């Protein structure tokens, strides 16, 4: 086991995985409060348009998808706020549209695209130094901003009217949550894959919600479980020769089932 941890590609996988886990574990709490579990899935799948466009014209896929994710987040927020449709409906429309655009662009992209497979299903063991640099340079400001806004963001999500009466502008904080979550999702795509990434946003938070007694415990446990899911998922992928993205998600599901059983045992 120690020999495995000394391998450079395992160290890169663990480092990038833990960074992403901290981001998604932190944001997952607020997404849970807002009941926006579908947001991660929608942004991830819609980002295929940005990735396909980048591959088609020869740009870097992740930065292109990051820019598109911000546009999508603003679009979802605007449709929710200034039309009669719900957030889930807005996400669903952009989700399918982004996927459709991505499929069309890929249709006109000649040749086999192996990089696309890693974005669809994730390959955390193939992470390179430039991927870590992008994740750190975008992820660190996101994490710092979340910490700074944590109390006001929680207040705005739990009680919009109360937040407004206290002098806050809830819509700004909700838009900020959409944008930060979208950026974090795109950062995670190459690690977990478009198909699976939303599970890492949801599952650790669900485990924490099952086991926590206080909101503070809910927050730090969500981050802790996200990190544990990623670490054990990577190790399982290497030791059992399994796809990395699927291994991480299956480990998370296993932990979730165990948390339900443990919670049920304690309640007796």
Q: Structurally, how many domains make up the residues?
A: 1
Q: Distance N terminus to C terminus?
A: 38 Å
Integer-rounded radius of gyration: 18 Å
Strand/helix succession: HHHHHHHHHHHHH
Average predicted local confidence, pLDDT: 87
Helix content: over 70%
Low-confidence stretches: none
CATH homology-level superfamily: ABC transporter involved in vitamin B12 uptake, BtuC
Strand content: under 5%
CATH fold assignment: ABC transporter involved in vitamin B12 uptake, BtuC
Brief digest:
With 268 residues, the chain is mainly alpha-helical. The chain contains 13 helices and no strands.
How would you sum up this structure, described in words?
This protein has 268 residues and is mostly helical. It has one domain (2-263): ABC transporter involved in vitamin B12 uptake, BtuC (Orthogonal Bundle), CATH 1.10.3470.10. Helices cover 84% and strands 0% of the residues. It has 13 helices and no strands. The protein starts with a helix and ends with a helix.
How would the blueprint of this fold be written?
Layout: H1 2-5, H2 8-34, H3 37-46, H4 48-57, H5 61-82, H6 87-107, H7 114-121, H8 129-158, H9 160-165, H10 170-192, H11 197-211, H12 215-240, H13 244-267
């Amino acid at each position: 086991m120690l020999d495995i941890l000394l391998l450079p590609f395992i160290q890169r996988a663990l480092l990038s995985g833990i960074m992403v886990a901290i981001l998604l574990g932190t944001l997952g709490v607020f997404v849970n409060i807002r009941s926006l579990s579908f947001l991660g899935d929608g942004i991830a799948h819609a980002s295929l348009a940005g990735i396909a466009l980048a591959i088609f014209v020869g740009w870097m896929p992740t930065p292109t998808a990051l820019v598109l994710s911000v546009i999508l987040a603003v679009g979802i927020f605007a449709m929710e706020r200034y039309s009669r449709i719900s957030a889930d409906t807005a996400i669903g429309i952009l989700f399918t549209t982004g996927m459709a655009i991505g499929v069309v662009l890929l249709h006109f992209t000649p040749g086999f695209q192996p990089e696309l497979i890693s974005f669809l299903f994730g390959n955390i063991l193939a992470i390179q130094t430039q991927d870590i640099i992008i994740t750190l340079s975008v992820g660190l400001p996101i994490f710092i901003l979340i910490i700074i806004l944590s109390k006001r963001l929680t207040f705005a999500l739990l009680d919009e009217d109360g937040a407004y009466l206290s002098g806050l502008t809830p819509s700004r904080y909700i838009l900020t949550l959409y944008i930060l979550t979208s950026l974090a999702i795109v950062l995670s795509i190459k690690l977990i894959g478009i198909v699976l990434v939303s599970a890492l946003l949801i599952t650790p938070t669900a485990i924490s919600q099952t086991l926590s007694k206080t909101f503070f415990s809910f927050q730090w446990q969500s981050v802790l479980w996200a990190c544990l899911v990623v670490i054990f998922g990577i190790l399982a992928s290497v030791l059992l020769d399994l796809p990395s993205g699927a291994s991480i998600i299956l480990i998370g599901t296993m932990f979730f089932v165990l948390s339900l059983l443990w919670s049920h045992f304690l309640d007796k």
